[in-house]
Amino acid sequence: MGSRQPLAVPLLDPVNSSPGVWHAMVAVLRRDLRLSVRQKQDLLNPLLFFVMVVALFPLGVSPESSFLGEAGAGILWVGALLATMLSLDHLFRFDFEDGTLEQIALQPQPLFLLVLSKILAHWLVTGLPLVILTPLLGLMLYLDGNSVAVLCLTLLIGTPVLSLIGSVGAALTVGLRAGGVLLSLLVIPLYIPVLIFGTGTVMAAGSGADVSGHLALMAAMLVLALVLAPLAAAAALKISLSAS
């Protein structure tokens, strides 16, 4: 495992606040991406878990193409949800343990913007690879081309929502020893609407219905999570740091 260095965010002229905020956000994003590349297990574990869930499901239920064609969207969405949740506990925990999180909280920039950069890094190394891998797995589950395209679009919209919502739970449980179990209990109920709309959109596309309304609702979820989740995660981090 590569060593994790404390964050050092060089700031620009404090009088010119906008470039300083942007510089700090980019610094946090680049640092998290660099650490993820060094720790390749953090990149591979969610992908391997995703593939195993999709591959084992037909063996445990039914390998019939008709069944898999109907259930394929749900299988892939559940696999993506679980793979995302598998990596959530690492979103803030390593930084909390080595003191980097306290340095981030002490920066003059708004904490929720720096948290947003960390969430973006999490999605880039976890959610985006799942979306890229989905077409191949969708064809393995006998989904037609239109359904695969709509499924990829729903995951492209929905996986950032999973990372955003999950960041709130990760921030609340970052200081707890058994935080992983509690994190699952906190975020799974909040994931259910995303799962329902994601699978429902693909099923509607498979039946030939118009999916623009479904996609608009998912986009509204993304905007709402993008606005509220970083604020809630930043507040939760302050609570966790003050309690530690």
Automatic annotation (TrEMBL):
Required for the export of heme to the periplasm for the biogenesis of c-type cytochromes. The keyword Signal does not apply. Its main location: membrane. Belongs to the CcmB/CycW/HelB family. InterPro entries: Cyt_c_biogenesis_CcmB, Cyt_c_CcmB_bac. It holds the Pfam family CcmB. The chain crosses the membrane at residues 43-61, 67-88, 119-142, 148-174, 181-203, 215-237. It comes from Marinobacter zhanjiangensis. Keywords: Cell inner membrane, Cell membrane, Cytochrome c-type biogenesis, Membrane, Transmembrane, Transmembrane helix, Transport. This is Heme exporter protein B. Signal peptide: none annotated. It is found in: Cell inner membrane. It is a multi-pass membrane protein.
